[in-house]
Amino acid sequence: MVFAHDGRPDDRATAPSTTVRPGPNAAAAMFSPTVADRQVLREIASWVADRLAYRDDTMPPRRRAPQLPVPQEHGIGVQAAWAALRDQVLPTAVPADHPRYLAFVPGAPSVAAVLADLAVSASGIYAGSELEGGAAVEAERSALRWLSDLIGLPAQAHGAFVSGGSMANLSALVAARHLRRRLAGHRPHLIVAGAGAHSSIISAAEIMGCDVASDADQHGRLDALALRRILRTVDPGDIVAVAATAGATNDGAIDALGELADVCAEHEIWLHVDAAYGGGALLSDRTRPQFAGIERANSVTIDPHKWLFTPFDCAAVLYRDPEVARAAHTQTASYLEPVGAGDNPSDYAIHLTRRARGLPLWLSLLANGTAGYRDAVDRCLDLAADAGRLITRADHLQLVVDPQLSVVLFRRLGWRAADYARWSQHAISSGLALVTPTKVVGETVLRLCFVNPLTTRTDIERIIADLS
Ligand SMILES: *Cc1c(COP(=O)(O)O)cnc(C)c1O
Questions:
Q1: Residue 436 C-alpha to ligand 1 middle, in angstroms?
Q2: What is the spatial order of strands in the sheet that 436-440 belongs to?
Q3: Low-confidence ranges of the chain (pLDDT < 50)
């Protein structure tokens, strides 16, 4: 390797080297792409395009290599390291954007969103403040605006993109507590949640040192009746917030948001709505009416990495009154003073340094338009309806409830928990699908969740046939 006078490796004078970057200038070589590195970057570009074009080919996951390379005193070079990632790591994962990945909540990023995510990684953007983030902060703001409008929040509503719905829920509840404490003079310690609340609400309560108050008799959606029953057993002054769910992860159920908003307004209780998964369905005329009342929430969680087609990780926390969030979350220190008082994304959640993880959503919205998003969400709802019909028609299967949003719960007649577990294992190892069991009122059943418009009716038919 020959080095130019400025200490950068001079590739014009050498053949690309795949090995080590030794010597006093190793640091320079580590941070400037060589000709060989550029070759790898081009290779990655076509690898990305191929993977997105043939997502179907990425199942079943390849068996793990006996041993992954381990970092050593001397490096193996970018080319060899990329080969290890490409050949030994990436193919062993079950890709969440595979058309027959129907467990949990999958993620199906658009091409535009993936491109933006790659560019964000390469751009060195610190997206915690306007001072450093420049128009990246503005673009994220515009994506947050789009989400607020989708929900129906007022013009001043605002928030930030965080790593996931768990962090969004925690950030919102911490802001709610901050306000309550300021108004009441004591620290409230109860979070009210319905039976459909996501596990992250319970986890947030644990982190905050709070207890969860719920109604043992309530199984389906949380409504005014159930909330009033809970309120009779606790002091409303002790309540941090009511955490409602708009699209329960397990069954897609939406709490009675309008009724809950009425009761919360009556008692001056903060209403948080967790629409991490379900929020995408606000785009469809078919499902939107079920969300009536969400526009009255004090805070909302919505995950673009679930049903709004961005790569992991991208969730949004939105506040009706962003000033409350700023008061709760702004970090202060002498070294942070130069950042200034702009619209700084770090001030709205539990984070400081952050990637501009809202840019993929912004770019994807820009590229595909709201109409593209609406079509993609409708397509997922169609798939859930198709699955419901196919299951109803199959002699060996039975719907547990009609599909809610894009979740389908069904039983295989004659099967017990162990049979479901065995089949699910077989389905993944044979490359058929990732479909896992869950429980509904104690009974083990199968669950499909459609957020990937690339899934086809044939995919569903293959799964149903395999269950016979
Ligand atoms: C997935 C989910 C969460 C948690 O979101 P993460 O992004 O996984 O942290 C919270 N609430 C609901 C309703 C969810 O479906």
A1: 17
A2: 397-399, 407-412, 443-449, 436-440
A3: 1-17
